[in-house]
Amino acid sequence: MNLEGIKPDDVSFLGVLSACSSPGCLRSCKRIHSQLELAAVHSPPDLSLENSLVTAYAKCGDLEATERIFQRIPGKNVVSWTAMLTAYTFHGNGSKALELYDKMVGQSINVIYTGSLVGDVGLARKLHARVASSNFMLKIQIQNALINMYAQCGSLEEARWVFDGIEKKNLVSWNAMMGSYMQHGYNEEAIALLLGTRGPWSPA
Fold it and tell me: CA 56, CA 72: separation in Å to the nearest integer?
């Protein structure tokens, strides 16, 4: 596109930023970022582009650049906060993830992307405890996200405990629990949940 004189638009930048997903892409990420900065001279970057930069730099291994971009975003939305929260978790920085979560709660950010925290069941439990102590826990979106979060951490027992505790389950709740079972190879449990029969993990 550049060689043929065609200027990329926001959709172009969003597409290539999503391809920056490993440390080997850091150099490309910086080049794309430079082009974005040049384009911003005439038009400030869209919020979705700023959020994508946060995610891209995090996946490319540059947490310092990730934090710098996040801090400069003037009108952060829930996606911005979640991208930074996920970045800290991705890099194993649980203390900063929890600190950021507390800031989100303090600013009344509606945390509905809890399920994006992957792999650290200890951090998942701490985050769950913080959610449980706030009014966010009453929201069905949060409860469903907790199911996904525990499943992604490999703790199906805790995912099922959250599922069973939802008083008024919606379709997302059922799909989240069935998907969690299938993700870990417990296909019979997923079928049992769908059909209403007893499976090996079903409560007595």
Answer: 16
